[in-house]
């Protein structure tokens, strides 16, 4: 798989709509990063970092609000990836464009694994919560 050919696909669908919308944006921004040239790379990376901060904070908030059991592990992975992106940003700004290209190449692999191992579990948990809330809404209507 080359990063440039990477895009949204059924394997990334979690069925939890707010998460899927955010993940589609992440995939688009990663694809834009892979296509960026030296001139536009930092701008694309900044856009991806801004998105990722909000993306991860939303998931962290869902986990905290609903006492999701694997919160610590999931949040730790978010923190590590965000820190890596920021480190690479500093290196690219200092002239290490090769490291930027490696990040663009590796992020899709990381993301697919993260969705499979962590986000899908959170999505199922959130969908179960809405199933539990739905009957009480029906009764009070
Ligand atoms: Fe996510
Ligand atoms: Fe996540």
UniProtKB/TrEMBL annotation:
Pfam family, one: Hemerythrin
InterPro entries assigned to the protein according to its UniProt record, in alphabetical order: Haemerythrin_Fe_BS, Hemerythrin, Hemerythrin-like, Hemerythrin-like_sf, Hemerythrin_metal-bd
Presence of keyword Membrane: no
Record-annotated Hemerythrin-like domain positions: 17-123
One of the record's GO molecular function terms: oxygen carrier activity
Keyword line: Iron, Metal-binding, Oxygen transport, Transport
Keyword Transcription regulation: no
Family: Belongs to the hemerythrin family.
Protein name: Bacteriohemerythrin
Phylogenetic placement of the source organism: Bacteria, Pseudomonadati, Pseudomonadota, Betaproteobacteria, Burkholderiales
